[in-house]
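Pasting as-is:
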Amino acid sequence: MPSEDAVYEAAIARLERALTFGINPSLDGIRALMDALGMAEMACSCVQVTGTNGKTSVTRMTGALLTAHGYRTGVYTSPHLVSYTERITVDGRQIGKRKFAQYLADVFDAADTMDREFTEFELLTATALHAFRTKKVEFACLEVGMGGRWDATSVVDPAVAVITGVSLDHTERLGATREEIAADKAHIIKRRSFPVLGPGCQGVDHIFHERALSLGVPKVMTVGLGDDPDVTWRIVRRPRTPRGTLTVDVHGLRDYRVALHAPAYQAPNAAVAMAATGAAMFNVLDPDRANAALRSVTFPGRFEVLRTRPPLVIDGAHNPEAAAVLAAAIRDSFRDSPPAVVLGILADKDAEGIVRALADTAVFFVTTENGSPRCLPAGELAALVERVTGREVVAEPSLGKALAMAEARSGAAGVMVTGSLYTAGAVKAFVDGSL
């Protein structure tokens, strides 16, 4: 019998040969796959999460909270850092490589019955939903890949529709203004959905309220939004080291104090996840279970500490807003001395905005490349960093050499790697020895 790794690699090779990368502005493909798999309707309840920033963290925390309250829960996120299996978990555990290959093979068998091509995301979304049905999950927490209207996850009618916030990202696909992007994301709200709006919706929240009103949805829950939000939060204690504890008070239907091993920017995400979980369960959360769930949840690629002495931290911040939030986390967690920053950014992102946000957080910059064909060349990024910050910067296309250079220069202060989830994932694979 072939090894698990061999079976998995063969499945991924088929995926890479068969898929068509890009966006399919239609739900016809994913609906056809679901029909062929005998899944015209989901047997479980779904929580669908969209938003420019924070959606992965909210999806993971909501899944952890539901699991802690006794529900069998599937979580689907994207992209992965090292392995596709990271995208699909049940009760906090990744499905194994052999199982992933089996579920993907079932999806390919269904696809082979149709005379059409499917995108990677359609195939993977169908794989996740098929896995959740097989595993008999009671709740599926689904992170939207992009936007909302045509995203493959929108094949479901979510019981809870979460929008964490809206910023200018993927403007070539979703629209040139926050209003246009919000209108696209608003499509995850369906007639039987309970919408939950995060604080990042400020200024465009009327679009989501109008969508809900047009569908006859009776209630929209707001978190830290507007003059009288349904749920609020307050940071009690900020972490002082990269793996420090964040303590947050969350106020809503009742009062909670929860702790996370995470930077302060996760506080509003925790409040949104708690609101979404309460809406999904039609009940208030148990304080002890909520605290235990959030204390144990991990955030791959989001201020993830790969090493503590000296610190090595990866964060997939890939737009100016996320970079500004990361900059505040760096100031909290690297109080004694700033780290060296290794930066790798995709060419279609606002590299200048990202650099400006991080300008005063680094003692030294190293620009590098992450293996993606869309990555900005290290030399071009270095010139931009030097122009924007006036700081010392070195361009090193080799990721391993860039990391070694930053570690040698920063000493005990440590290294922060950011600019893209691709960069974060490539460093994680390098440290794990799989690259």
